[in-house]
Amino acid sequence: MLGRVKALRFLRNEVVLITGGSSGIGKALAFEAARRGAIVVVVAQNQEKLAAVAKKCLILSGRPAFAYAADVTSPQAIDEVLTKVKHEVGAIDVLINSAGLGEFTAAAHEKYSSMAEMVHVNMLALMYISRCVAKQMMDQGYGAIINVASLAGKIPTPNSAVYSATKAGVIQFDNVLRMEVADYGVQVLTVNPGPIATPFFKKADRTGEYQAHLPKWIFIEPDELARRIWDNVGHKTREINVPVYVAYLGWAYQVFPGLGDWAIKKFFDFQQDKKNL
To answer: Would you say residue 65 has pLDDT above 60?
Structure first.
């Protein structure tokens, strides 16, 4: 089966399922997969946006493309989509969980509804879909599961406690899942990007305070990240951390957490009394 896993590097005629495929990094991943000849399946809630993405994928690849509207936080909806994919498209060769959301608010002021939504979308939905598809891939003896986490799961920043916790959870989930499926020829790749130039921050950072502290050059273009991800599918890559120097900062934080806390608070000009905590 090793040769079959290596074939995923080329993506031609491989079935690729992408959650969060209607916008942002999910859309960029769908288009890049289509350019490489994949049969793309996109899943999200907005059917109109999904249809537009699938239509462009068909044009780019010359192969069928599929769009299924579903709420990824509903296990029943996911089960229904996976059943449709099995019967209408075929076995999934590559799964990418890119659906996610965030809200940058101090933990003491975070609403329960927002906390629950982030946990359900960023973590529980990802884990359930990964679990379902992993079973199929283990049976067929090959496949790749790519989960989009974040460098926020490694480097804490003020006003992102819940979001960072969900992304840290994804990283650890993948670390265990990787061990469990490795002997079945299934790759598990965790993607930890820094800030991405997508509409994400318009919803997550409504005040603009968080984003204001980030220089424009630090933002990653989604097309660039999509190419980087696909270039590592079918290989032994465990994680993609971009930009690389920020990943080194994550390592440094683990070694010198006290110094890291001081530096991060300085960078974000964060004071507890200033935030009325």
So the answer is: yes
